[in-house]
Design goal:
Blueprint: H1 2-20, H2 27-33, H3 38-66, H4 68-88, H5 92-109, H6 112-123, H7 130-153
Helix pairs in contact: 1-6, 1-7, 3-4, 3-5, 4-5, 4-6
């Protein structure tokens, strides 16, 4: 059981690193280069946040119903489709759809990975380690975000 817990922790850390290794801070520049006006970019941002707001609770219900791993895989699929749309889009509506998918990807992973890791700890009566696990995950997020930005911007 301890080996499974350790494996889940390492996979969770790896998943977190890959999920936050990106260029989200370059959206405005990218979308301007693709021909969107600042108003359209603001609308895309609004679409993202509104979708996220409306999807947070239902995404948690999906995780409870279908399991954490399925929901995390669904989140990665949504992120991949989002990336493809962002690279191929030619008008505002395609970009808006891409932002909907990005919000769903975010919501499907939001809290799900933490719940999966907490359950792994609980199975081994090690829940007292959870604050350290969340600290490690936040540290990974804070490292992965700028590293991904620098690597992709180079």
């Amino acid at each position: 059981m301890v080996k499974i817990m350790q494996r889940n922790l390492h996979l969770g850390y790896g998943y977190t690193a890959l999920a936050y290794f990106g260029i989200t801070s370059l959206w405005v520049i990218f979308l301007q280069q693709r021909g969107l006006s600042l108003v359209q970019i603001g609308l895309c941002e609004s679409v993202f946040h509104l979708t996220s707001l409306l999807s947070e609770v239902p995404s948690g219900m999906l995780a409870d119903r279908f399991g954490y791993k399925i929901v995390l895989m669904g989140g990665r699929v949504a992120a991949i489709v989002h990336a493809i749309i962002m690279l191929m889009a030619t008008n505002f509506w395609w970009f808006a759809l891409g932002f909907v998918l990005q919000a769903w990807a975010y919501n499907l992973q939001s809290g799900t990975i933490e719940a999966l890791l907490y359950d792994s700890l609980a199975e081994n009566h090690a829940t007292e380690r959870f604050p350290v696990v969340t600290k490690n995950m936040n540290m990974i997020i804070e490292i992965a975000t700028p590293v991904g930005f620098c690597w992709l911007a180079a």
